[in-house]
Amino acid sequence: MQNNTPWPAPKVAIVGQGAIGSLIGFKCQKLGYEVQHLVRRQRQQSYCTVTDLAGKTHHLTPNTGLITQPQQFDLLLVPVKAYQVLPVLRQLQSFITPQQVIVLLHNGMGTTEQVKESFPNNPLIAATTSYGALKPDANTLIETGKGHTHFGWLGQVDTATKQAIEPVLSALLPPSYWHQDINLALWKKLAINAVINPLSAIHNVRNGELADHQYQRDISTLCDEIAKVMTAQGYSISSAELNKNAQQVIAATANNYSSMHQDLKFNRKSEIEFITGYVCAKANELNCPVPFNQRLLEQVTRLESVN
Ligand code: PAF
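That is the input. Now the predicted structure with pantoate docked in place:
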């Protein structure tokens, strides 16, 4: 494995070993970056078999370290559930210095405000990717879909930091796009999640089944409501564009169960508060009613509490 970057690559730390975190770890190893996964508990066997998109199998031993004793790092990637972001960063607080760059990568919105407040001196990046990965067990990773990745700095950052970090991140899950205002890309992804996740969880269906005629009215209503909130926020977008984006993802991930479907099925906390909950909270601030999103928020919250 070789380092393809023209300078000493920053040391990367990845929180956890979820599907996307493991995929990024694998890509880091391929690119020759120095990388560690920060975990709660060290397992005896940390080997991993990765099947890439071409069907080729790779065997690797990820470098893991306890989150309570991380090795030195320059770049911290946080690909965890939205509700875990602040707790894990608080856990790492005593190891985080102002030079370290923090990258948030998760479904939903609302965490960046919280992180900025708790880590006001750190350069912060928000990211969203449409790459797909599955981790059927702790030692197996399957790359399921090539996507694209969007990044944006949250706040002012010096040129040297940008020059050191942007190529490193851009190489991981290409093609990568850097945005002056990442919020539009985050809202577009939020809209996709606000359509697919609650509907697939409530109706207990795979993503692809949402292409069925019976769900089209609900999808249109959700897109109408979200387009209104986005427009009120200054992101002029049509309901038709949001609908088209959602239908594309429904088709591209037809055989998958959404993360929210799986969270409810396995009695885990879902990200509803950061997806539909965020839409409803912004709608409320902007005095822009979103009754159907509100109904889905209540339905999923009820299903969560029944579990
Ligand atoms: O949360 C998920 O499952 C995914 O973000 C998506 C895009 C809805 C595909 O299943």
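The chain is about 40% helix and 20% strand.
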